Amino acid sequence: MNGSSARAGPGGSGARVDDELPVLVLDVAREVGDDLVAHGSRRGFVTAREVAVAVDDAGLDAAAIEQVGVRLRDAAVQLVDDLAGAGPSGAPSPAPADAPASVDAVRLYLNEIGRVDLLDQESEVDLAKRVEAGLAAAEILDSPLELTTAQRTCLRRVERLARDAKQIMIEANLRLVVSIAKRHVGRGLQFPDLIQEGNLGLMRAVDKFDYTRGYKFSTYATWWIRQMISRAIADQSRTIRIPVHLVETMNRLGRIERSLVQRLGREPTLEEVATAADLPVDKVEEFRRLGVDPTSLDAPIGEDGDGSMGELLEDRNATVPVEAAARLLLRSDIAAVLEDLNPRERTVIEQRFGLVGAEPSTLEQVGCNLGLTRERIRQIEAKALAKLRRPGRVDQLDGYLDT
Prior knowledge:
The protein has 403 residues and is mainly α. It has helices at residues 21-41, 48-58, 62-74, 105-113, 121-142, 149-172, 174-182, 191-208, 217-236, 244-264, 270-277, 281-290, 321-338, 343-353, 363-370, 374-388, and strands at 45-47, 78-80, 300-301, 307-308.
């Protein structure tokens, strides 16, 4: 970059970025040269104006511009003066005919991504390097270092190239997302939603991919795609959200159960599943309960949908009519039996045995209510019960003992 150093701004550390810039500049020069070669190869030449605009947009210095010229000469692309009326040759190809109206959005999407060529490992590495360079350029631009206008222009060019490389990697691997999303259909999310979540994982994989490890990008991206889809299913597919780690355990138990069914030829017991999963039986039972999807009480039922699920459920707090009638008769008969007692005896019996709707009271509580001693209440109670035990007094209540 014309040999000038980049200085830290006020309060900065005085760090220099010249050591990092030459590599980025050479990458930009190479990309500009490749673009011009590709542009000129289709018609056999490029104009001086096209070269000037390209190097000016990239913010290249004299040394970098020379590299562009060498690239054009090596590719045997002729450099000519401006041509009157010469327009850009990179016009987009005619748009394909519209898909039939009967083709749904998913099928149209699958047709579109099916036209994109797959990448070989060499291309993946090259694109990953561009993405990495773009991240480095972004860090420099966001730092407190003072940069010249040319340096900033160059770094922004690197960022644009990185975005283009990232887009190419994403588009070339969209079919991988569809392939993985198909395996998760039927778990609570629609197929388009699964594809969308998988695409988010693919974008994350492009940012995180380390080409120096030597493995293919698709191998690395598969993990991110599955992770994003699984997390979306856990977060969005259930009325009551279940944590992701529990969903993963439930999925593992499901795979174990299917494996046992194939091996045993029958449904496995809880103990067999727990042994195969190395989990306690109560945990397996708990995970099974978690796996049951809740159903709305307002869910329509019946052929016409005129009923609801809630109408079929028993209200355990509701009173059965027969029991309610029997209780009213019992209360009436008890009141008739107690008519043989004097008012004080009747009050003591009612409070001691909770016959007036309240809970049974102790001797001391009844004594406090009536202003009598505990012993006196005991005596009144004993006398009242003796009266009630006389033959013919409580015979009418015997029938209730059977119910």
